[in-house]
Amino acid sequence: MSGQAARAPRGAAPGTTQALQSALAAEHAAIYGYGVIGAHLAGSSLATATADWVAHQNARDELEAMLRAGGSQPEPAAVAYRLPISVRTAGQAVSLAALIEDRIATAYLGLVAVSTPSVRQLGALQLRAAALRAAFWRGSTVAFPGLTAAALTAPGRGPAPDHEASQR
Amino acid sequence: MAADPTRRVVIAVAALLPLAAVSGCGGVDVLGHPPSPAPDVGLLRAAIAAEELMIARYDAVLRGGGSLTAALDPLLAEHRAHLTQLRSRLIVPAGSASPSPSVRPQGTPSPPAGPAAAVAYLRDAEQGAAAGLLGWLPHAPASLAQLFASISASEATHVPVLDAAAGNLTGQAGG
Fold first, then answer.
1. Cβ within 8 Å, pair B150-A156
2. Could you tell me the CA-to-CA distances from A135 to A110, A132, A162, B161 in Å, in that order?
3. Tens digits of per-residue pLDDT, A122-159?
4. How many interchain CB pairs under 8 A, A with B?
5. Does domain B37-174 have CATH number 1.10.287.3510?
């Protein structure tokens, strides 16, 4: 994140802008990651990855529009991101896709914690979309998409949004 | 001129009455009434009841036996995890009213006969439960809203699994 201060959207609860910027940072990283993923896939897997890549671009655009509507400047994407795993095979690309979606789900849980109803609803819908994509890539479901183990063992504390990948 | 002692007592009691009226309580009765549960306790109880009903539906379908066990067991395990987590969030003050964990007891579900119909029944139930949790989000505090959203997302991911199970049943019938 840069040091530039972001203004809260008009009429929004405190923390909304920060949550939107965190989700946007995760989307920037996901778009980068899917570019790497697509380079290692073919056939129907590539088609799915391409569709997911477009979905993340649309989500990024929506977050940026929300921030601008509230008078805030969306944080730009980094030039490159350090991936959480190295990708040299199709199997590793699929693992990366599942990992990215897990982190996107966690990022959107930050929006669910915001009290502004429209922002909370957006967070829940994008969390569901990320959970569905993660389940596809992983080939199995999880009981608590987006929630960390720490959040599950400490009621009353929401998970801290986890940015997708550190900027290089 | 000495004041009438009886009249003094009446005046003192009358002076206290507005306080009791403002408090909305019946004097010492305030000590006798148990505290009301917080509003989110009602949401939690409703979510617990919905999860209990979902588990009962899976149990009822699985009691029918057949080839669905492998597909349904992992989903049922996740629902049991949901229920455990929801119950862990239910902290009711000692002595408060309505200590029962659920909104109301549910009858034993009666899934339709046949594996394909049973899978469709569970699929509809998952969709309904996921939508129900999303409907409660505006009324939930942040932490509970996150749990509801996560469980709703989990239930949404069960739908394609059940679709795949239904597809396998069709393939078996066709093959």
1. no
2. 20, 5, 19, 9
3. 999 999 999 999 999 999 999 999 998 887 876 544 44
4. 97
5. no
